[in-house]
Every structure is written in structure tokens, then in C-alpha cells.
Amino acid sequence: FQLADAVMLQSIDFPGLTSLGGLEMLSESEGDLAGLRIISLPELSAVEGDFVLDGPRALYTVAADQLVTIEGDLAIRGGCTYEPSFPMLESVGSLELVGNCGMESLDGIPLGEIRTQNSEGVSLQVESNDGLSQAVLDAFVAGLSVTGTGSVAASAAEDGACSTWQNARWKSESEWCSSE
Q1: How buried is 81 (Cβ within 10 angstroms: 0-12 exposed, 13-18 middle, 19+ buried)?
Q2: Is the separation of the CB atoms in 94 and 71 below 8 Å?
Q3: pTM reported for the whole predicted model
Q4: What b-and-e string marks burial along 20-59, b requiring 16 or more CB atoms within 10 Å of the CB?
Q5: Which of 20, 25, 23 is nearest to 9 (CA)?
Q6: DSSP letter for each residue of 121-138
Q7: Closest by CA position to 85, among listed 38, 120, 132, 50
Q8: Which residue of 9, 83, 88, 167 has the lowest C-beta tally within 10 Å?
Q9: Is 160 within 8 Å of 131 (Cβ atoms)?
Q10: Of 88, 32, 87, 79, nearest in space to 60 by CA
């Protein structure tokens, strides 16, 4: 399932969906997916491919309460206010959490295992998330078993790193995530 350039879309709810080949939501420019607020996949238990959220900045709820495994990459990039809720998630192929300005906790990703690496050779990349402290990241990484051979990096962001990352990524002239 791939979604891009859906400016008016506000929510996605698939109440009976139990498995998925992959999910890719791409925001190619500042207006793409601008209205998307909620993704609800209450019965989803397995993703056979990648689960990618790339830039839906207004998204505040991503919930897949029964999701146990993602065979491919879990990549969440460029969001402003959301924190994923995957309370049953045990394993992913690789994990990338980059440029999410409002992400303050990783409690919604109780991950235990990262099995491989993505196409860039990365098993774990967590950076430019202004709300995540180094203590939170250290505790998260300490609970992981990384069996992939890719690189592993998890570092707290300096103030403003998220907006800088997002502006470089989407070449925006304004800040995507503002506190106003």
C-alpha cells in the first residue's frame, strides 16, 4: 500500500486488516499528506515488507495495537507531533526514527529485536528527534537485540536539529514544526 500527494486525507482506518505486504506513506513536498492526522490499524498483526511514514507532519496518532512483527524496515521520518503506538511490536528488520520533532518517548515501540539492515546498511538509526533525551535512547537501545550487521546509531538531538533536518530534507523555507 503506497500513499502520496493526498492533501485532503485526514484519517486512515482499516479495522479488519490483519496482514499487509507493506505500507509506504510519502510526503514529497510540504503540502503532501498535510491533512493526515490519524492512522488506525487495530487488527494488523504482521507486515511482510516495510512500514514507512515519511513526512506526514500533522500526524498525531499511528496505532497498530496488535502488530507483532515487521519483516522489513520500520522508518518514521519527519513528523511533528506523533508517537507511534505499537504496544505488541517485538521485531523489525531495521529501525529508523529520524527528524520527528515531537517524539518524546519510545514507550509505544517496545521492540526487542532488530534482525537485519536496510538498503543503506543501517540496522538502527535514531537521530534529530528533538524530544528524545539521551537517557531515553540509552534505555531503549539497552533493551534491544540487534542481530543485523548494519550500523547502529542513537543520539539525542541538539536544540533545533529536527527543524534543521526537516528543512534540508524538504527544502522548505519555513519551519514545519512550530510550537505556535
Answers
A1: middle
A2: no
A3: 0.84
A4: bebbebbbeeeebbbebeebbbeebbebebbbbbbbbbbb
A5: 25
A6: SEEEEEE--TT--HHHHH
A7: 38
A8: 88
A9: no
A10: 79
Length, in residues, of the chain: 180
In this structure, the dihedral spanned by the alpha carbons of residues 79, 96, 9 and 36, taken in order and rounded to 10 degrees, is -30
Taking only the tens place, the pLDDT of each residue in 110-131 is 999 999 998 889 899 988 887 8
Question: Which one of 23-32, 133-142, 166-175 scores highest in mean pLDDT?
Answer: 133-142
Cell of 85: 503506538
Which residue's entry shows cell 534482525? 115
Name the nearest CA neighbour of 49 among 147, 119, 149: 119
Evaluate if residue 170 carries a pLDDT over 60.
no
Residue position matching grid coordinates 526537516: 166
Query: What is the average pLDDT value for the chain, to the nearest integer?
Result: 82
